[in-house]
Amino acid sequence: MTATFARLVTIQDLSCFGKSSLTVALPVISAAGVEAVPLPTALLSTHTTGFTDYTFLPLSQQMAQIAAHWQKTGVTFDAIHTGYLAQESQIQTVSAFIDAFSRPSAPVIVDPVMGDAGSLYDGFAADYPEKLRVLCEKADILTPNVTEACLLCGVPYQGESNDTGYLDPLLPALGNLARGGCAVITGVHGPNHTIGALGIQNGERFALWRAQLPAPVCGTGDLFAAALCALLVRGAPFQQAVADSELFVEKCIRQTIPVLKAHPYGLRFEPCLSWLAKQAQQYA
Length: 284
Ligand code: PXL
Prior knowledge:
The chain is an alpha/beta fold. It contains nine helices and eleven strands. The strands form two sheets. Strands 3-2-1-4-5-8-9-10-11 form a nine-stranded mixed sheet, with helices on both faces. It has a two-stranded antiparallel ribbon with strand order 6-7. 3-hydroxy-5-(hydroxymethyl)-2-methylisonicotinaldehyde binds at residues 13, 15, 20-21, 44, 47-49, 84, 113, 121, 218-219, 221-222.
């Protein structure tokens, strides 16, 4: 294996319990052999799905100060990944971060985290999707779930299945929104009890399906995005990185099923990190 030295910044919340966002992204990115640098958007006691009375501390001021310090220090990144933002003002902060830290060879992956199952997550205002488009325009790659794709495109949510083809026009719309022309809609229900991703890369569409299995309410998209970013940094071609990430998610879900009742909050991804590490090595 060729020695690599690659660094990825991942901008999302630190929800201490529940397995989402940074608690998922950091181990996944590290396992893939990439240095993971967190820029936390907020500190929460748990994620917001399935919990009540969670603590919530937005870190907007800290984010700007941390970014300024990194700039002064000369820190650079080989990819920029953004996920859950805690305040509307952070859209501007993260846009400015991308402007400051972008490099031609460093992909920007925007996961427009804001909702699921047809609804916005707790705490997001109705006009947030429209406002988030500004950040999406700075992406090379967008990774919305079905709900987020509909919200970004202003299309009514009609369920997770694309039987009617209602998601088909969303792919070019998302591809055009991202400056890099790439988008993946995750969690699409496909034919014969499958689930997977609909993607577009510079106008070329693709679809990837895997078995539909019972999964936790939260964190699957975060796991997918983290694996995707890390594999891209390792040099995987986009569609191959999507395929590997889908397979990784499926493996993690299979590990989770036996403990899902006892711990319905997040994916048991730990036993699958060694698989991801091996998969990433082939791209070195
Ligand atoms: O997995 C998406 C996500 C990220 N961050 C927080 C969340 C959720 C989903 O509920 O609550 C804080």
